[in-house]
Amino acid sequence: MNIFSFAKTILFRLDTDEALGRAAELSYFFILSLFPFLIFLLTLIAYLPISQADVLNVIRQYAPGDTMRIIEVNLGQIMNEQRGGLLSFGLIGAIWAASNGINAIVRSFNRAYDVDEGRPFLIARGMAVLLTFAMVFIIIVALLLPVFGKEIGLFIFSHFGLSQEFLTFWEATRLVVSAIILFFVFIALYFVAPNVKLQLRHVLVGALFTTIGWMAVSYLFGYYVSNFGNYSAMYGGLGGIIVLLIWFYISGLLIIIGGEINALLLKIHHERIIRKS
């Protein structure tokens, strides 16, 4: 199967598996889980050598301008009004909302692989909770590495008397580190979520596609919104919310496409084995 036939098949599968509707479902759950997740994360990092600004700076790399303003304003209000018991509130809210989002992703992946969800409810929900904590851990690592990476770069720069070009290169590699961590997040998601026994090599292509696609689309969409898109003129005060929904919708669609790519590649692999036998 050449690349054009592969792309045509993916489009056909996206249509038959109702990918557009499932992406809308994912964007709804992403909205519900966003602030509880951030509240929990920001409360947790109070015990770590990183600040709220570090978290928001990482989000700012991908989020469109209007979306970022909504996140900052609302998150600041919530953090100021509910300083007591934020950790428990954020934990419960994030686990429940994110587990619903993970379940929506699981259903999309199972649809791509043409399998039913045969795992017991507690196991499926427990998997969603574990994935939530895994994502929190990975995000924290993604935040810590740039912070300490900058300090390490400055130490090497000053100790060995290297040129300014080295420091510039070192700063640029921090973006590469973020992309690599994001790549591993998608690998874990595509490997664990579907009710199919997979090997890591079966999910690498979809994870790579989603990583590159999500970073590129987030940048291009943010550029479009900042320079051309005037959603406030059409939606008024809801313009920022619409931008956030569209960004989540595109993100959900990319995740689904990555799952469809993995499922199709696995199907092609099995067909080749059958033909050889």
TrEMBL record:
The keyword Transmembrane applies. Signal peptide: none annotated. Coiled coil: none annotated. The chain crosses the membrane at residues 28-50, 86-106, 127-149, 169-191, 203-225, 237-266. InterPro entries: Virul_fac_BrkB (IPR017039). Keywords: Cell membrane, Membrane, Transmembrane, Transmembrane helix. It is a multi-pass membrane protein. One of its GO terms (cellular component) is plasma membrane. It is found in: Cell membrane. NCBIfam families: yihY_not_rbn (TIGR00765). This is Ribonuclease. It comes from Sutcliffiella cohnii.
